[in-house]
Automatic annotation (TrEMBL):
Residues in Orn/DAP/Arg decarboxylase 2 N-terminal domain copies: 36-279
Family: Belongs to the Orn/Lys/Arg decarboxylase class-II family. LysA subfamily.
Assembly description: Homodimer.
Modified residues (N6-(pyridoxal phosphate)lysine): 60
Required cofactor names: pyridoxal 5'-phosphate
Reaction(s) this enzyme catalyzes, per UniProt: meso-2,6-diaminopimelate + H(+) = L-lysine + CO2
Job of this protein: Specifically catalyzes the decarboxylation of meso-diaminopimelate (meso-DAP) to L-lysine.
Lineage of origin: Bacteria, Pseudomonadati, Deferribacterota, Deferribacteres, Deferribacterales
Organism of this sequence: Deferribacter desulfuricans (strain DSM 14783 / JCM 11476 / NBRC 101012 / SSM1)
Domain Orn/DAP/Arg decarboxylase 2 C-terminal: 29-369
Molecular functions per Gene Ontology: diaminopimelate decarboxylase activity; pyridoxal phosphate binding
Listed name of the protein: Diaminopimelate decarboxylase
Length: 417
């Protein structure tokens, strides 16, 4: 469910025609629907209404300040993985008591920033990190609230690059070592053990891996309790998939019902870290056809957006639906939508049946609201594109287009070279 729809043959985001934004802002641009973001948050939240829970939006999915602010106003927290994400979440007005911090390589500086910000908890990913956090907290005369991120060795059945809960992955503490680590954590002076965390992967389209991982976490929490370690927060991470193409992911309600069944009787507050399911279908990337080219093998539609703007197709072979901004009777042709970058991997769609777009046509690359702009880069010295937020009949430029000066801003030429 999202708010990108056709009216009188034109694609709108809520009540704003995309062609109006294109005319005024230029292309390419990302556009997000406030109504869709709100709806996705509210549906997720309502699915868990019968149990105590906190929803911490995964900032890595979409870290625009306006998006974070909108979610924060709905009482959403943040799942962060860096000092930069913490900075953004705080600037956007997110309550630090709803911020959880994961990531395998937290630096001393980042740990200090998070301790001073009094976040809800650190999700610890290694023994050495635990010791470092204890040391920094001691220096600051604080107690660090922590959860251990447990690696339950459950196959999430998703793309290997976005699987995180298998033994071979770098994430978390192996379940076999967790008890020992919890006992050690509980013995440290500047650590308060409050939670247990797991996140097994992203874009999951089946419920069973979630259920398997949750069962492992529930058993562990019960055993910890019998050893005198009381877990208040069970953080089950994010990972719920969305429909890009043919997938049929479970709805938040189906997911919630199963999870609630598994945790019944356990006295914990659940924490969730959804990213994609909130933001994915709330955004599209709009691009314009610069040139078309036909070869013996296929049609190329050369557009003004590129792999630096949306990396998912080349990084994971991801499918993003391609729709015309102006509805019409396009002939279907076989080919690629490619960008101007000097890489063969620079495509937004490859070897697909596509509308026979012509020079100047606007194209909407769908489901680009999560891991779209946040993974973009300046490769080929391309200024990053603007982000637009639509609310009903108004649109706001919530991140302006970068300029050439932005590209070179942080650089300098040594005088005595
Ligand atoms: C620790 C953690 N939490 C939450 C997420 C968000 O995942 P998703 O966008 O699939 O909900 C991720 C990314 O996979 C993650 O690494
Ligand atoms: N960046 C990935 C998701 C990985 C999430 C990080 N744990 C994607 O676009 O699908």
């Amino acid at each position: 469910m999202h708010h990108f729809h056709y009216k009188d043959g034109e694609m709108f985001c809520e009540e704003v025609p995309l062609k109006k934004i294109a005319a005024e802002v230029g292309t390419p641009f990302y556009v997000y629907s406030a109504a869709t973001l709100k709806r996705h948050f509210e549906v997720f939240d309502a699915s868990f209404e019968e149990v105590p829970h906190i929803i911490c939006f995964a900032v890595k999915a979409n870290s625009n300040l306006a998006v974070l602010n909108l979610l924060g106003k709905l009482s959403c927290g943040a799942d962060i993985v860096s000092g930069g994400e913490l900075y953004r979440a705080l600037k956007a007005g997110i309550d630090p008591k709803k911020i959880v911090y994961a990531g395998v390589g937290k630096t001393e500086e980042e740990i200090e920033f998070a301790l001073k910000s009094d976040i809800l908890m650190f999700n610890i990913e290694s023994f050495q990190e635990l010791e470092k956090i204890n040391e920094v907290a001691g220096r600051l005369k604080k107690k660090a609230r922590i959860a251990l991120r447990v690696n339950p060795n459950v196959d999430p059945k998703t793309h290997p690059y976005i699987s995180t809960g298998l033994k071979k992955n770098k994430f978390g503490i192996p379940i076999e070592n967790a008890y020992q680590e919890y006992e050690y954590a509980a013995s440290l002076d500047n650590i308060e053990v409050v939670g247990a965390h797991c996140h097994i992967g992203s874009q999951l389209t089946e419920i069973s891996p979630f259920v398997d991982a949750t069962k492992i976490m529930v058993d562990m929490i019960k055993t910890l309790k019998s050893k005198g370690i009381n877990i208040k927060y069970l953080d089950l991470g994010g990972g719920l998939g969305i429909k890009y193409n043919e997938e049929m992911p479970p709805s938040p309600k189906e997911y919630a019902d199963k999870i609630i069944d598994v945790i019944r009787g356990l006295d914990v507050t659940l924490v969730f870290e959804p990213g994609r399911v909130i933001a994915g279908n709330a955004g599209v990337l709009v691009t314009r056809v610069l040139y078309t080219k036909e070869t013996e093998l296929k049609h190329f539609k050369i557009v003004d957006a590129a792999m630096n703007d949306l990396m998912r197709p080349i990084l994971y072979g991801s499918f993003h639906d391609i729709k015309p901004v102006k509805e019409g009777h396009y002939k279907t042709v076989y080919g690629d939508i490619v960008g101007p970058i000097c890489e063969t991997g620079d495509f937004l769609a490859k070897d697909r049946n596509l509308p026979d777009f012509q020079q100047g046509d606007l194209i909407a690359v769908m489901s680009a609201g999560a891991y779209g702009f946040t993974m973009s880069s300046n490769y080929n010295s391309r200024p990053r594109v603007p982000e637009i937020l639509v609310n009903k009949d108004k649109y706001y430029i919530v991140r302006r287009r970068e300029t050439y000066d932005d590209l070179i801003g942080p650089e300098s030429i040594p005088e005595d070279l």
